[in-house]
Write a structure and sequence with these properties.
Blueprint: E1 14-19, H1 23-36, E2 40-45, H2 48-57, E3 62-65, H3 74-84, E4 90-94, H4 99-107, E5 112-115, H5 121-156, E6 160-165, E7 170-173, H6 175-181, H7 185-189, E8 200-201, H8 214-221, E9 225-233, E10 239-248, E11 258-265, H9 267-311, H10 315-340, E12 348-351, H11 352-362, E13 369-372, E14 377-380, H12 382-399, E15 405-411, E16 414-419, H13 447-458, E17 461-466, E18 472-477
Parallel strand pairs: 1-2, 1-3, 3-4, 4-5, 13-15
Antiparallel strand pairs: 6-7, 6-11, 8-9, 9-10, 10-11, 12-14, 15-16, 16-18, 17-18
Helix pairs in contact: 1-5, 9-10, 9-13, 10-13, 11-12, 12-13
Length: about 475
């Protein structure tokens, strides 16, 4: 089993493996080096084969090898060592010196080259070169471990992280940055902070100038910035909204050295905020309908009741009954609509067709027909989805005429419900979701706003378009798919 020569990198004694086929010379080198250099411990072997065995069992920080040895030569030994320990310092210490040997040794990856001599100074030189080589090796090893550690931390980060150099080029990014930006690590590294391909915009959709970008502000001031929000257009065309925190990577480095930026995807939050604002507006509109329409119905009932008392004409009581029924209908529809925005808090995996069939069975469909594609499974509140289908079925039956067909089918990220009736004119497709809007005599105008409320509560997008057969088509997107079985 191989022992990591860097396990104690930066600390402890330097363990040197010296391989030389002359035992007496090996003993001399060991004695002199250990006497003259307190930090050195020398292990001696007489051939390359035993040296390789020692390398696999002991922690070795540096190898010193002779060049001309029987069986396995010094450079062959070096080549074998480099196959399993590509970075360990290897010093060729030989009595056969020549420019040709030195050149070949360098080409094969030797760390240093030293020719044996008769003087004692050679051991001082050898000891210094061993220490320098190991010091450089340990420093590089620690830097590599630090880089690996930083990469691991970045990849485990719950946020997207990028590091930029002093020129604004992205030199490091984590996995979540790739997902958030819709680019590979290599593609991210090809861009600068102000690359035109980002198409960065502000809250109003206007391009952001270079001076207003987070990197520029941090690079120029050296001060961190927080919660700067920009929109970035991904390659797939989606606009991603990012909250950016940025700061110099090192406190003691110049502000323009390196900058680290943490990118938080706020796109979903913005959608939720927009839906919440729409829900509040819808509820306010519903409140106005409640105040106006319900008040009118009750005022009519009170007026007719007074006439009945004054005149004794019982036909006024029929009008009272009609007005109270109208008030009851409005109150029921308003209650459903208001509840739609508040009770959708427990979603489960549902079969769309099953819920639609249940809604169909509860409605007066007369001679209408249904056509539902099987296999659609989503996550939704079952009772809320049931109300969506009930309202859409009633809408078809009441406004579409006789013999209509209601179709339900899948979309890439949701589903649609359409009929083959007269449809909804383009200029009315926004108004139909407004409380109180109706084209039916005696209608409350609450059904479709109720659908809008339910969609908003789920976080769905809703739109009306033309059906395949010219009728009204209601599309629900951004729908969460059911968990795969």
């Amino acid at each position: 089993m191989s022992v990591d020569s860097g396990k104690e990198a930066g600390t402890g004694r330097i363990r040197v493996l010296h391989v030389d086929d002359e035992p007496a010379f090996g003993a001399l080198v060991k004695t002199v080096l250990e006497q003259e250099h307190d930090g050195l411990e020398v292990i001696t072997e007489v051939d390359a084969r035993h040296g390789l065995e020692r390398l696999e069992t002991d922690r070795i920080d540096c190898i010193v090898s002779d060049y001309d040895m029987p069986e396995v030569k010094g450079l062959e030994f070096l080549e074998t060592v480099r196959g399993s320990h590509p970075d360990i310092p290897f010093i060729l210490f030989t009595g056969k010196g020549s420019e040709e040997i030195a050149s070949e040794a360098v080409g094969r990856g030797v760390t240093d080259y030293l020719q044996k001599s008769s003087g004692t100074e050679q051991y001082e030189v050898l000891g210094n070169r061993i220490q320098n080589s190991v010091r450089s090796y340990r420093t590089e090893h620690e830097l590599e471990r630090s880089r690996a550690f930083l990469d691991r931390v970045l990849d485990l980060s719950p946020a997207a992280v990028v590091v930029l150099d002093g020129e604004g080029s992205i030199i490091r990014s984590n996995k979540l940055a790739e997902t958030t930006l819709g680019l590979s690590k290599a593609e991210i590294a090809e861009r600068t902070f102000n690359d035109d391909k980002w198409r960065i915009v502000d809250e109003n959709g206007e391009p952001v100038s270079d001076d207003a970008l987070p990197f520029r502000q941090v690079a120029e001031t050296g001060d961190p910035i927080f919660d700067v929000e920009h929109g970035i257009r991904r390659p797939d065309g989606e606009l991603v909204w990012l909250s950016i925190n940025a700061a110099p990577l090192w406190d003691d480095a110049p502000s323009s050295d390196q900058v680290v930026a943490v990118l938080s995807d706020e796109s979903n939050r913005r959608v939720k905020d927009r839906h919440q604002a729409e829900t509040i507006r819808q509820l306010e509109d519903l409140g106005r309908v409640l105040s106006h329409d319900l008040g009118n119905a009750l005022n009519i009932a009170v007026g007719r009741l007074e006439l009945a008392r004054e005149t004794g004409d019982s036909t006024n009581l029929e009008a009272v009954e009609d007005s109270l029924q109208r008030a009851t209908d409005i109150l029921a529809d308003l209650t459903d609509a208001i509840k739609a925005g508040s009770v959708v808090d427990e979603v489960t995996d549902l079969d769309v067709g099953d819920v639609f069939d249940l809604a169909w069975a509860t409605q007066e469909t007369n001679d209408a027909k249904s056509d539902v594609e099987s296999g659609m499974r989503i996550r939704a509140d079952e009772m809320a989805l049931l109300r969506v289908f009930e309202n859409l079925i009633r809408n078809t039956v009441e406004h579409g005429g006789e013999g209509r067909t209601v179709r339900v089918g899948p979309l890439a990220n949701g589903f649609f419900v359409e009929d083959d009736g007269p449809g909804v004119r383009p200029e009315n497709r926004t108004a139909v979701f407004e409380p109180g809007y109706t084209t039916k005599a005696g209608g409350t105008g609450i059904g479709l706003p109720s659908i809008k409320q339910i969609a908003l509560a789920h976080g769905w997008e809703t739109r009306i378009t033309d059906g395949d057969d010219g009728g009204a088509r209601f599309e629900f997107t951004n729908v969460e798919q059911a968990t795969p079985a």
